[in-house]
Amino acid sequence: MAINKNHEFEELDGIKCAIVEKNVSAERVSFLKQLLEINKFNVVVVASPPPKIAPAPPPSANADEANPAIAAPLPPETFTLGVTDVMFNATNAVFGRLLKTADGHVVTLAYWKQQESVSHDQIPYYENKG
């Protein structure tokens, strides 16, 4: 059990893992898996369980049989992504500047969130001598 919401872990495919993100799309899984494997983490990906939804109310006795009930749309397929290093914490890794891109730049928050396609690592304000 996690001490707080920022450092969760659980078993994925029978392996104790630190959870990186839950309910993510296949595209996001691809991006994160590649990034984490570049940084020498063993990544485990499993399908997220479908969301729990309340059962539909029973049809009324005078319902029109010519119009079948409209089926609820299927939820999008999502995944849970974790790493086998249970000490890993995504927040600490990004803000602690511990992750690198394939070309050696430090992973920034905007890059992690996929808001930028290239990581523009900057010198932290406290190291700026200007």
Percent range for β-strand residues: 15-25%
The number of helical elements comes to 3
Instruction: Please state the average pLDDT score.
Output: 82
Low-confidence stretches: none
**Helix/strand structural class:** alpha+beta
Biggest β-sheet: strands ordered side by side in the sheet: 1-2-4-3
Describe the structure.
This protein has a four-stranded antiparallel beta sheet with strand order 1-2-4-3, with helices on one face. It has helices spanning 26-38, 90-95, 109-112, and strands at residues 9-12, 15-24, 43-47, 79-83. The longest helix is centred in the N-terminal third of the chain and has 13 residues, at 26-38. Helix content is 18%, strand content 18%. A hairpin with a 2-residue loop joins β1 (9-12) and β2. By secondary structure, the protein is α+β, with helices and mostly antiparallel strands. The model has no long low-confidence stretch (mean pLDDT 82). The radius of gyration is 21 Å and the shape is elongated. The protein has one domain (9-50, 77-127).
Helices and strands in order:
Blueprint: E1 9-12, E2 15-24, H1 26-38, E3 43-47, E4 79-83, H2 90-95, H3 109-112
Antiparallel strand pairs: 1-2, 2-4, 3-4
Q: What's the quick description here?
A:
This protein is of the alpha+beta class.
Features of the shown structure:
130 residues; alpha+beta; 3 helices; 18% helix; elongated
